[in-house]
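Encode chain A's predicted structure.
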Amino acid sequence: MPAVRIWSDRAAMSRPREPRLGRNVVVLAAVSLLTDVASEMAYPLLPVFLATVLGASAMTVGAIEGAAESTAALLRLASGWWSDRLARRKPLVVLGYGLASAVRPLVGLAQSAGQVLAIRVADRVGKGIRTSPRDALIADSVAPAIRGRAFGFHRAGDNLGAFLGPLLAFGLLRWGGVALRTVFLLTAIPAAVSVALLVFGIRETPRRELAPREAGKPLDLRVRLPGRFWGFLAVVFLFTLGNSTDAFLLLRASQLGVAAALVPILWAVLNLVKSLASTPGGALSDRIGRKPLILAGWLLYAAVYFAFGRAHAPWHAWALFAVYGVFFGLTEGVEKALVADLVPADRRGAAFGFYNLAIGLGALPASLLFGALWDRRGASTAFAFGAALALAAAAGLAAVVPGRTRAAEPAE
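Encoded structure for chain A:
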């Protein structure tokens, strides 16, 4: 028995230790958690505030959100490009989070829909500035062998914040006797803590991979990226065309009989499952490769959408929302890890910029197509359309992405 124990101890000591996530990844996950607490305290209440307090129309609400998200999509590309040309990514990340954190609470002081529009656009400008450099900083900060786990861990923090934020707002309104405007103002607290964490907690990662001849070059919009990255981007865009806003899922849940008072709880359940599934999903992709996880996620998405179109009971909505959360765990962090795998280290910012732009540009036509199909052909047809595009994207992914792509492989 002692001999067996000695042998097992020696075997354990001889195995190489798995690299740790490190300070930057943990801090960025905490920053995203606190930022999403602040954001999700406000976001679900914004349409109600615009309609009931400021008297805005539904078209005005849609225009505000459309302008804000389009601005963010374009800035993600620009900020990603620019971060590749700088020696440090942290200043852009701090600027983006700081701007959004400073303007978001001002909704509580707004007296017109035009002021809310300006605040929302500024908020999304901050998101657009920070997103691509932050994702590139995560990739810069970890060993390639745990890149999937790192992105999954970050998404887990983000989704946990999205779970806690609405519950906190609900508690303040329901049991705290807090006014709607005050809830918006209180978002300044978690936002300020997140920016302080970012400023004092993040350490810039040396850009050793950036050759001296590249460091002094002016911004070049003709970014050279591998062909297989563009192939992956094409299938991501195709998938996004079938990935409409989750507001339609909430509408479908309401049709199935989920009470209006329980809709925020249903949304919180989705975000909790997303948070729980993200880190295991990312870590699994480090072991078996990115492609199998993304394929599984997209196929699961197709199944969930097909089932939503044919569901007929309230419990179906609860079950499908929980399964839908697993889809995010299999894909959100893994797709970002694959982007980092496919491109050279000195082009990560631009690559994440293009990736985020593709998703941002595909989101609007996706929702318009889905809504038009719902109005003209019914919910089952609209959900079947989304499922069909997910299946087509999965087939495209199988064709354009190498079968054994994983973090340990060198980018072309």
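The CA atoms of residues 188 and 405 lie 42 Å apart.
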